[in-house]
Design brief:
The protein has about 475 residues and is of the alpha+beta class. The chain contains 18 helices and twelve strands. It has two domains: about 1-170 and about 345-410, Periplasmic binding protein-like II (D-Maltodextrin-Binding Protein, domain 2), CATH 3.40.190.10; about 175-340 and about 415-465, Periplasmic binding protein-like II (D-Maltodextrin-Binding Protein, domain 2, 3-Layer(aba) Sandwich), CATH 3.40.190. It is about 40% helix and about 10% strand. It comes from Paenibacillus whitsoniae.
Length: about 475
């Protein structure tokens, strides 16, 4: 098929297909739904055609839902069983993939024309696939009611031009988190902005809190930074952008905007904080997962890559019991922060079969909008609804704060042309600054020059493709 052949040209060579499929297969779990029988009706989106004959589709899923009884995929099986009560003619084959090996497995599947029918993922990959014409548009399944109930910032992450390629489901603003228990033990809870409804605070206030941890809880690392790989890059870019009251990219995503004097000062601050032992040692050799693990062990007071979704997912992963509290990134002047949204949603690979595409839309519609399972699924992700009218899912003050913090959500740079290449330049420049090879300004200027070239190149390639 033409669209899938394009994936072969752009993602990976066929020479790797056999070995990569073998390497990734051990990280997945295969299950399937009951056999098909008769048709059913739609559940509240714009009308789509129901296949009149039995259809079989494949759904690949990262562990977006929290496991039941410690079993990855068990909750997804429940979704499929409930779905088949409404749509017994659609057989759904589930394959669970991991965050570690899943992206490469998807690349291999696309390259070999064996992509799944349905995927639950994030905009970074989905929009890239949409730009490469690998996905089926979802415009016909989005009603006017749903369209108006989702903010423009979220739709921007779900569309390419006027085509909707991702049906947005769960979201939460990416923020920092603090080990509140540490501050309670050292009698310094008043140093956190928890008495302010929006919890906004300044870099100076943040630094004062870090110094209190260093002085009164010497066995706890005050804060952390990381620069080993691109994983978790949203944490580092938001940290520096907010501390420097800057943006990562311009509002139209046409060029880099992080190389301001203030953002450079923020990066220099991180370097100095490392020397002053206010931040973890050796950040250039630490990955996001390393920092997250330190936080879950209770060894780190502040972590910079968190959200309501991660808070829920981390409950069974904590090595010691403590209360984790969500906080916005501090800003130089105490102004309102700009928070990137975590966003999860579903997409359909255009595998050339209209019946499979129609059946896949029914599955997405059920997961997102079923009267019973729609809210149940959201809670199982630990996220907030992408729809602004769906609130109050959790009886938890931190979730109520996360809902209020949605006012700080801004556009995410992940939808920018060439972003997959842009992010590869980010961490090497952070490493240069952290290891003394460049000042903050030199590192950010070098990043900007390389990233701007990538943006221009991607725009030129897209124009040529049209």
């Amino acid at each position: 098929m033409k669209t899938m052949k394009k994936g072969l040209m752009t993602l990976i060579g066929l020479a790797l297909v056999g070995s990569q499929l073998a390497a990734c297969s051990n990280a997945s779990t295969n299950t399937s739904s009951p056999a098909p029988s008769a048709p059913a009706t739609t559940t509240g989106t714009a009308a789509t055609t129901v296949p009149s004959k039995p259809v079989e589709i494949t759904w690949w899923n990262f562990p977006n839902f929290q496991p039941l009884d410690g079993e990855v995929g068990k909750y997804e099986k429940q979704i499929i069983a409930a779905f088949n009560k409404k749509y017994p003619e659609i057989k759904v084959n589930l394959e669970m993939i991991t965050f570690e090996g899943g992206p490469q497995k998807l690349n291999v599947a696309i390259a070999s024309n064996s992509a799944p029918d349905v995927i639950y993922d994030a905009p970074g990959r989905i929009i890239d696939w949409g730009k490469k014409k690998l996905l089926a548009p979802l415009n016909d399944m989005v009603s006017d009611e749903v369209k108006k109930d989702i903010t423009p910032a979220i739709w921007k992450q779900s569309m390419v031009g006027d085509q909707i390629y991702m049906y947005p489901i769960n979201t939460a603003p990416f923020m920092m988190a603090v080990n509140k228990t540490v501050f309670e033990k050292i009698g310094a809870l008043d140093l956190l902005p928890l008495n302010r409804p929006d919890r906004t605070w300044t870099v100076a206030e943040y630094e004062k809190a870090l110094k209190a941890v260093k002085e009164k809880a010497p066995d706890v690392i005050p804060s952390a930074f990381f620069a080993k790989s691109s994983a978790g890059d949203q944490g580092t870019r938001a940290y520096l952008a907010n501390m420097g009251v800057s943006r990562f990219l311009s509002e139209d995503n046409s060029k880099v905007a992080i190389n301001t004097d203030n953002a450079a000062k923020a990066l220099d601050w991180v370097v100095q904080a490392t020397k002053d032992k206010l931040s973890v040692a050796g950040p250039a050799s630490l990955a996001a997962a390393d920092v997250n693990d330190l936080f879950l062990q209770g060894k780190l007071a502040f972590t910079l890559n968190y959200s309501a979704v991660l808070k829920a997912q981390n409950v069974p992963l904590k090595k010691t019991q403590f209360e984790d509290i969500l906080l916005p990134f501090p800003t130089m002047d105490g102004s309102k922060p700009k928070l990137e949204p975590y966003l999860g949603g579903m997409a359909i690979f255009n595998n050339g079969n209209a019946d499979k595409i129609a059946a896949s839309k029914k599955l997405i519609d059920f997961i997102a909008n079923d009267p019973e399972y729609g809210k149940k699924n959201l809670i199982q992700t630990g996220g907030l609804s992408a729809r602004t009218s769906v609130t109050g899912l959790y009886n938890d003050p931190e979730y109520k704060y996360a809902e209020a913090a949605r006012e700080f959500i801004t556009d995410a740079p992940t939808i920018a042309d060439g972003y997959a290449e842009i992010r590869t330049f980010w961490f090497p420049e952070l490493q240069r600054a952290l290891t003394g090879g460049a000042t903050g300004k030199e590192a950010l200027d070098t990043f900007a020059a390389k990233a701007n070239e990538a943006i221009a190149k991607a725009k030129k390639e897209q124009a040529a493709a049209k």
